[in-house]
Amino acid sequence: MKKGLRILSAVLLVLLAVTAFVACQANGDGKSGDESGYYIEYKGTKIELDKKADAVISALGEPKSKESLGNCGGYGAQIKYVYDDIVLYTVKNDSGETVDQITFSNDIAETPKGVCIGDPIADVEAKHGEPIEKSDTKLIYGEGSLFIKFGIKDGYVDSIDYIRETPKN
Q1: 3-state percent breakdown (helix, strand, coil) of the chain, nearest 5
Q2: Other C-beta atoms lying within 10 Å of the C-beta of residue 105
Q3: CB atoms within 10 A of CB 148
Q4: Are 57 and 138 contained in the same domain?
Q5: Are 41 and 108 in contact (CB under 8 A)?
Q6: What phi-psi label fits residue 35: left (phi over 0), alpha (psi between -120 and 50 degrees) or beta?
Q7: Measured between alpha carbons, how far is 110 from 38 in angstroms, rounded to an integer?
Q8: Do residues 24 and 40 share a domain?
Q9: Please, which residues have CB within 8 angstroms of residue 104's CB and are 6 or more apart in sequence?
Q10: Residue 99 located in a structural domain
Q11: Cβ 98 vs Cβ 51: under 8 Å
Q12: Tens digit of pLDDT for each residue in 98-146?
């Protein structure tokens, strides 16, 4: 009888461990990274937060300007790339260069849920749901350390920022 209980306990522990491992592999909403919504398609290039930046920078070509912004809170050197329609911020350290923030302020791109610059607040909320933070000047959506901030002016989206880490502004 004791041997049977041990085997049953071992099986239950393995099932519990497997369940915990699988749960940690998905985002909080159960979607894979490609479905998470923390990316944009810009000129045929997928730019995704918290992913390696090398292929993105190569695909986008020469930026209008590139500026090193110094150390990013001990995570590495933050670099700002300015292109015609977007600004890309990366963090570079021993692990490579990672996409840290994506900012755009015209309707050249839209969120995976179809929101773009010029849309009314009602469209943002209809497509993205209830924000985690809301004011007259911004709507913020996010989970973990990834966020989308919609800048609002006169009731309409006037900028969109994809931000890794907690937005401070």
Answers
A1: 25, 40, 35
A2: 15
A3: 25
A4: yes
A5: no
A6: alpha
A7: 11
A8: no
A9: 40, 42, 85, 86, 87, 117, 159, 160
A10: yes
A11: yes
A12: 999 999 878 888 888 999 999 999 999 999 999 999 999 999 999 888 9
Instruction: For residues 142 and 133, give the distance between their C-alpha atoms in angstroms, rounded to a whole number.
Output: 9
Q: 61 and 124 in one domain?
A: yes
22 and 49 housed in the same domain: no
pLDDT digits (tens, 9 = 90+) for 10-39: 443 333 333 222 222 223 232 333 445 688
The whole domain housing 131 covers 33-164
d(CA 98, CA 67): 15
The answer to whether residue 169 sits within a structural domain is: no
Closest CA to 75 of 167, 169, 164: 164
Residue that the structure tokens 């292109």 belong to: 83
The verdict on residue 41 lying in a domain is yes
Question: Cα-atom radius of gyration of the chain, to the nearest Å?
Answer: 20
Residue pair 26/94 in contact by the 8 Å Cβ criterion: no
